[in-house]
Write a structure and sequence with these properties.
Layout: H1 2-7, H2 15-25, E1 32-36, E2 43-45, H3 46-59, H4 70-79, H5 84-87, H6 95-99, H7 101-112, H8 119-131, H9 135-154, H10 158-163, H11 167-174, H12 177-180, H13 185-197
Antiparallel strand pairs: 1-2
Helix pairs in contact: 3-4, 3-9, 4-8, 4-9, 8-9, 11-13
Pfam families: HD_3 (PF13023)
Keywords: Hydrolase, Metal-binding
GO cellular component, one term: cytoplasm
Amino acid sequence: MLTSRLAQDPALAPLVPRLAFALEIDRLKGVERRTWLADGSRRENSAEHSWHIATLALVLADLAPPGTDVDRVVRMLLVHDLVEIDAGDTFAFDAVGLTDRDARERLAADRLYALIPGGERLRALWEEFDAGETPDARYANALDRLAPLLLNLATEGGTWREHGVQRSAVRRRMAPIASGLAAIWPAVQAAIDDAVDAGWVGPD
């Protein structure tokens, strides 16, 4: 109703696609991830994950790679999972789902980022995150891996235990932390070994 009223006012009509986009991205709240909340009460959704890692970007800003624009990283992290509205969340250890994830997400990006004027700027952030080559993207990717690690440790293995994930697979998944958050990489490796010792992760 609000957008239809705005559309009647030529001065405000340009707001309509932006507000419609705001409603479209609300659907991200309904995309369930495999990761459990730290209290184990339920699984998180993709919107909560995006908020979590965007906040972590501020909390851990002093550990970001040299040349990182942390404010830009926050923007990147807030929009990079919007494609999951159409593509769904692909579990990091789902070998079958990963085979066509890129194609599904690219189709989603084609639709979603075209909904809003200037959407090419949002899409560029998504593309940069996926490429993982800039300091901003390396930091963003490290945070994207760190948050699920923390939640799996808090829930005594969480999805690792549920799906019988092995140490080598966890290490591969966490590898971006080595360059994007190098200061904590030794602690991450030790935490993975501790998870193996506790029986939360398979020893390979």
